[in-house]
Amino acid sequence: MAKKAHKEMSFMEHLEELRWVLVRCSLATVIMAFATYMVNDFLFNTVIFGPTKAEFVTYRFFCDASKYLGIAENICITDLDFKIQNTSMEGQINTFIWICITAGFILAFPYIIYQFWNFISPALYEKERKSAKAFIIVSSLLFFLGVLFGYFVIIPMTINFVSTFQISTAVVNEFNLESYISMIKSSVLVSGLFFELPVIIYFLTKLGLITVAFLRKYRRYAIVIVLIIAAIVTPPDVVSQVTVSIPMLLVFEASVIIAAVVEKRRLKA
């Protein structure tokens, strides 16, 4: 589609161009996955299993912050009493492969965004096509911010909560490797994609599929959903829930502001 921007394309030609976009995105992901393979010791021991250690940066930050603010010091973590075990023959091999692929996708995200922008750009006005660089930079920045938020906030709080929660002292926490890795992947990817909400709202508003009135009407429901998510992924204390919910609410409010600006310009045009 991007190569034939100045002439009409058939439906099958669009599909063929989309196929090549997906092929290039997959190839970029695989290449970056091989790059992460070269640093697999750092990837697993420091990044993936870092939140399982009491000295992880997030735990130390909240401990220091609680002492500084003079609130309960039991928020400080001295030990995470659980083990991660592998219960299947292919478990560690599958984990190795999928973590490398996930890391490859995250690192290749700017290129993936660039490919999809090239695919949709012929349908945009010339002025909009000129903003490609800004779109790629903003989308990538939001995605990486979401990934960092998921990794440094959501994952540590989830681990802290599930590792300390017990229905009985007779039950020992020994988590399955697959379950732990699934939580890691879903937390960072979902958080990264959630932070893309302003970009998604921008395009939906530009197409007239969403209005500011709609977003404002259902704002209260969005707030409730965010608070429920924060309550699920964090320990049952106000500080942790506020820490998770505020950035998510700010992302939603930023989306509303962007929608208002886009709708105003669209109606004026």
TrEMBL record:
Q: What keywords appear on the UniProt entry?
A: Cell membrane, Membrane, Protein transport, Translocation, Transmembrane, Transmembrane helix, Transport
Q: What does this protein do?
A: Part of the twin-arginine translocation (Tat) system that transports large folded proteins containing a characteristic twin-arginine motif in their signal peptide across membranes.
Which family does the UniProt entry place this protein in? Belongs to the TatC family.
| UniProt topology in membrane | Multi-pass membrane protein
GO CC entries: TAT protein transport complex
A biological process term (GO) from this entry: protein transport by the Tat complex
* Quaternary structure and interacting proteins, as annotated: Forms a complex with TatA.
The molecule here is called Sec-independent protein translocase protein TatC
GO function terms (MF aspect):
proton motive force dependent protein transmembrane transporter activity
Q: What is its main location?
A: membrane
Spell out where the chain crosses the membrane: 21-39, 96-114, 134-155, 188-209, 221-238, 244-262
Organism annotation: Flavobacterium fontis
Does tRNA-binding show up as a keyword for this record? no
The keyword Lyase is assigned to this record: no
